[in-house]
Amino acid sequence: MLDPLAFPKEPRRFCGSFFSHTGTVVLVVDARTRMSPKKAADREISRLPRLAEAAGDLRGQAFIGTSGWAYSSWKPGFYPQAVPQKKFLEYYATQLNSVEVNYTFRQLPTENMLTGWLAASGAGFRFSFKAPQRLTHVLRLRGCSDTVAALSRALAPVVAAGRMGVVLFQLPPNFKADVPRLDSFLVDANKCGLRMAFEFRHSTWFCDEVYAVLRHHCVALCVAQSEDLETPDVVTAPFKCYRFRKSEYSEAQLDVIEKTLRRQSAEGEVFAYFKHEEQPTGAICAVDTLRRLQHQ
Questions:
Q1: How would you label 104-129 residue by residue, b for 16+ Cβ within 10 Å and e otherwise?
Q2: Could you please report the per-residue DSSP string of 161-199?
């Protein structure tokens, strides 16, 4: 790790990079160089070490990321100043190995869009997707067969590439438990072969009857932490899904998160996502957590 204090006394003559205290790369380019911004960004990304690629049996893998990645306000705390927004995912994938795509909550991605995302990230990178609001907020899990089928078709390139995480169904806070409706929905949805996780935001869902339905259909209970509600950490599937939604986490809380993810990833795949904010706090927490999991 380079010491920023060891920079040349005339920084405008220096062309290179260093790791900041946040663990991200800061690019310094000599104003007199002829390197274009695009070449500078490509060069900087190419120098970064790629995360270990997932291979073979993924049992024991922890996939960590944030909810989304296209946040210009994350400069320069997470993204180097020289990296343009169209290169954000490529850079992001050098620091984290998964992302929760919020775009799909309102609109299905095109094949070209997914092809670009897959090309920008390595083979060990996983994409999770938030289920469309039409399923969770409009239809509220009733009469959803066509919409689920359309979602499955849209995500087929990611599934075919072996890069699929989970599809997160986040129910609205005013949606109280309805076990028969949940069971009926999952009977149809499972026909599409999607790996699903459910985030319930009303406490009536936290009961044995619901857990039994999830287990029967091999669907994960998404363990979500927020300022308002915390989900019981109950295992209902061979994989786990966590969403860390608090604005701040203390060092002690991050230690608990690390231990939890380490323990759960010993049993199967774990997908965990930190909240996005205007500042890159969640991204930095995610990077720190992933590095500790991979190197200890």
A1: bbeebbeeeebeebbebbbebbbbbb
A2: TT-EEEEEEE--TT----HHHHHHHHHHHGGGT--EEEE
pLDDT per residue as tens digits for the range 37-68:
556 555 555 555 556 554 444 445 999 999 99
Q: Would you give the distance in Å from CA 109 to the centre of its chain? A: 17
| Terminal C-alpha separation, the chain | 19
Task: Tell me if residue 50 falls in helix, strand or coil.
Answer: coil
Q: What is the pTM of this model?
A: 0.83
Instruction: Name the average pLDDT for the chain.
Output: 85
Task: For 143, list phi and psi in degrees, rounded to 5.
Answer: 60, 45
Q: Could you list the residue range(s) of the whole structural domain that residue 232 is in? A: 60-295
Which domain CATH number covers 289?
3.20.20.410
Number of domains forming the structure of the chain? 1
